[in-house]
Design brief:
Elements: H1 5-17, H2 20-36, H3 39-54, H4 57-110, H5 118-131, H6 133-140, H7 144-154, H8 156-203, H9 205-210, H10 214-267, H11 272-294, H12 296-315, E1 332-339, E2 349-356, E3 361-365, H13 372-380, E4 385-392, E5 395-396, H14 402-405, E6 409-412, H15 423-427, H16 436-445, H17 449-453, H18 472-484, E7 490-494, H19 502-517, E8 521-525, E9 537-542, E10 545-551, H20 552-559, H21 564-569
Parallel strand pairs: 3-8, 3-9, 6-7, 7-8
Antiparallel strand pairs: 1-2, 1-4, 4-5, 9-10
């Protein structure tokens, strides 16, 4: 059961509260910053009402030096407060970084057709918001009543005029929200879609060029990009209109208050210094509101990111702590398993039941789209089971955290799916504690040690994005070494010889034989008979159902009665290697 959304509000709130002391310090600095903002009005008040009246140069010099010191202090406090917001933003991102990345991966697994790193980008958007000047405006806003109070002390009309201006600005912010919210969201959604399609184009540039699809795909991306740009332009025009109107209205307020001050001075109810001070004070009182209206896109984006991140964390809750179990031995049991692609209601695997013991080598045969690769994904835990159970050493695979189970499994998918980095990084699964000895041992077990040494920088060769600098055969052999890293007791190989040459085939057979000899459970999905020469059991899958399962010789005798003897002759020790 997914946790209530309130739990994710609490999770996000706790990440903010982790910087509670930082925000308290920022609030203290904000108090003194706003108090020091009274320096200008008080200076003008003293200059007009005392210095000019007394014609005292020493008083003017003393006041000016004092103002210099106060404004210098103001600058230091502003700088320190900005630094505090940066610290709080960094802590917030640090507290939720792992959760956001895990949620992005979990959601991508749950719906591969919509794989996205949005939770990570939403967290980065919130980080930027916390560190932005908008945070300063939010902390300054509670002190606006201080300036309003001083305005009322100078004269009630000054205070009432400033309150009127504040009410109009708040109303403008609310209208701005209603007018631009849907356009802002539409723009952001289309921008994300455009980014994903752009990345897809770059990732498939080779096939797009080879098949002449580049222009068609580019036009598809262009339509999405133009849609996002149009929505952005509309919302920008609305926002710019409100920002410009707000600025003009603020200027009018400050000019009008001078007029009010002049009228009061003529009537003898205010001094010229009070008139100038009131103009400055009102500007400061409404400045946070004006800044929030001007930065409304940032505020709206942060609010949307907060909501989206909360939803993502709700859909991918953090795993609960579990008691560690002993290392798996390789006993595999499937109990009436029904499963299909994540997010799909159609079952690809239908009622699979079988059992493997440590040391078994299972070959999985069947036509294309029979469900063989789906079985591999279910056995590794990357696909959920709709009903039934997959158990490793008796434990349901869904109860085993991937961080614990993954290092104990060797998996080679149809496509090696290497990551950008070096050869050693990929073989060692990017683990900081991967020793050179263990990496070399895995490469030797996969028979690719000499091949790696012939690369430009050996194990330190940069393989590019997705292993782009390697051939398909090299990627598959390095992927096999990655699967064998750490001597896992469960090894699942999906079409492991699809891109291998003769030496690669021999290395694969040697690796399977070595894993079998040490008691590991090996599952091989294959179309070519060369890959099943060491199998102790065979399974034939068709239309997601097990048609045959049992000892290799018996199954071969049923499915290939005329060639069973020929297949036996290719077994090592019985006259050859396929």
């Amino acid at each position: 059961m997914k946790p209530d959304a309130a739990l994710q509000d609490k999770e996000l709130g706790e990440a903010l509260r982790a910087s509670r002391s930082v925000f308290w310090h920022a609030g203290g600095f904000s108090l003194f910053v706003n108090l020091l903002m009274l320096t200008g009005p008080l200076y003008m008040l003293q200059v007009y009402d005392r210095v000019l009246a007394s014609q005292s140069i020493p008083t003017l010099v003393a006041l000016t030096l004092l103002v210099l010191v106060l404004y210098g202090t103001l600058g230091v406090l502003e700088w320190a407060r900005s630094g505090l917001f940066s610290v709080a933003a960094s802590r917030f991102e640090g507290a939720l970084g792992a959760r956001a990345a895990s949620a992005a991966m979990a959601l991508s697994l749950a719906d591969p057709g919509r794989a996205s790193d949005r939770p990570v980008r939403d967290l980065r958007q919130l980080r930027r918001f916390i560190a932005s000047p908008v945070s300063g405006a939010l902390f300054d806003a509670p002190f606006s009543p201080l300036f309003l109070l001083v305005l009322f002390m100078l004269h009630p009309l000054f205070g009432l005029w400033a309150v009127f201006g504040a009410v109009v600005l708040i109303g403008a912010a609310l209208v701005n929200e209603r007018a631009s919210a849907h356009l802002t969201k539409e723009s952001e959604d289309l921008e994300r879609a455009s980014t994903l399609r752009s990345a897809e184009m770059m990732r498939n540039a080779e096939i797009l060029k080879a098949l002449g699809m580049g222009e068609a795909v580019r036009q598809r991306w262009q339509r999405t990009f133009d849609g996002g740009d149009a929505a952005f332009s509309k919302s920008a025009r609305i926002l710019t209109g409100f920002t410009s109107g707000t600025k003009a209205f603020r200027l009018f307020l400050q000019s009008a208050i001078l007029g009010i001050g002049a009228w009061l001075a003529i009537k003898g109810e205010a001094t010229p210094g009070a008139m100038i001070a009131a103009s400055i004070l009102m500007g400061r009182a409404i400045a946070p509101l004006e800044q929030l209206v001007g930065q409304w896109r940032t505020v709206a984006a942060a609010r949307e990111s907060w909501s989206a991140l909360k939803q993502a964390l709700s859909r991918a809750p953090a795993p609960l702590p579990q008691m560690p179990l002993p290392p798996i031995r390789g006993e595999v049991r499937a109990e009436n398993v029904f499963a299909g692609p994540p997010g799909s209601k159609t079952a690809v695997l239908k009622g699979l039941t079988f059992q493997l013991s440590p040391g078994d080598v299972l070959g999985v045969l069947g036509p294309s789209a029979a469900g063989k690769s789906s079985l591999a994904r279910v056995l590794t835990g990357t696909w959920p089971v709709a009903s039934g159970h997959v158990r490793l050493d008796g434990a349901d695979i869904t109860t085993l955290p991937s961080e614990t189970l993954g290092p104990q499994i060797g998996y080679l998918p149809q496509q090696a799916d290497l990551l950008s980095g070096t050869v050693r990084d990929n073989i060692g699964r990017f683990r900081d504690d991967a020793s050179p000895e263990a990496i070399i041992t895995a490469a030797q077990a996969a028979g690719c040690h000499e091949m790696i040494l012939r690369l430009p920088s050996g194990y330190d060769t940069d393989i590019g994005l997705g292993g782009a600098y390697l051939s398909a055969g090299q990627r598959q052999r390095i992927g096999l070494a990655r699967a064998l890293f750490g001597n896992p007791n469960l090894i699942i190989l999906d079409e492991p010889n699809s891109n291998l040459d003769g030496p690669g085939e021999q290395a694969l057979q040697s690796a399977i034989a070595a894993a079998k000899a040490r008691g590991a459970t090996v599952i091989i999905i294959a179309h070519r008979p060369n890959a099943i020469v060491h199998c102790t059991k065979l399974m034939v899958i068709d239309d997601g159902k097990i048609r045959e399962f049992g000892p290799a010789d018996e199954v071969l005798a049923k499915v290939l009665p005329k060639s069973a003897g020929n297949v036996r002759t290719i077994r090592p020790g019985e006259g050859g290697h396929g």
